[in-house]
Amino acid sequence: MTIIAAIDENNAIGNDNQLLWHLPLDLKRFKSLTQNHVVVMGRKTFDSLGCPLPNRLNIVISSNADYKVPENVLLFNSLSEALESALSKDSNPYIIGGGTIYRQAFEYADTLEITLVHTRIEMTDTYFPKIDFSKWNKIFEEFHPKNNKHLYDFRFITYQKKI
């Protein structure tokens, strides 16, 4: 299972249920990696998307039993139920947020796909869990400088859990 996230240098990932930046290359990479896979997310993340992600089976986790999801979106009340369903349908599902779901899923993940954004956003209320680098091997890294479409320098980093 893979966790995918864009984080700043303080592990910030969002504020008021919104992303902290717009990085077209990151969005393109997210789409490319998650396309035709199961994506698992919390209710707030799903609400922030506005609609299910196309060409992916969307699984939403909510403790609210009355929460309604569109047809073809699966709803579960716990991460364990969501992961059991996800793994029965896809050998490599993606956990796509938010902060609470990332924290709960960290122990199950064997891969981290991180976009490290080289900034420190002040106004933030949601954070990615601290990565214990003694438990992960960096297997890929690619730097992208800021430009007219990207306000910040950033890098794509892939980590594999040490066995």
TrEMBL record:
It catalyses: (6S)-5,6,7,8-tetrahydrofolate + NADP(+) = 7,8-dihydrofolate + NADPH + H(+). GO terms for cellular component: cytosol. One of its GO terms (molecular function) is dihydrofolate reductase activity. Residues 1-161 form the DHFR domain. Pathway: Cofactor biosynthesis; tetrahydrofolate biosynthesis; 5,6,7,8-tetrahydrofolate from 7,8-dihydrofolate: step 1/1. Keywords: NADP, One-carbon metabolism, Oxidoreductase. Belongs to the dihydrofolate reductase family. SUPFAM superfamilies: Dihydrofolate reductase-like. GO terms for biological process: dihydrofolate metabolic process; folic acid metabolic process; one-carbon metabolic process; tetrahydrofolate biosynthetic process. CDD domains: DHFR. This is Dihydrofolate reductase. InterPro entries: DHFR (IPR012259), DHFR-like_dom_sf (IPR024072), DHFR_dom (IPR001796). Key enzyme in folate metabolism. Catalyzes an essential reaction for de novo glycine and purine synthesis, and for DNA precursor synthesis. Its EC number is 1.5.1.3.
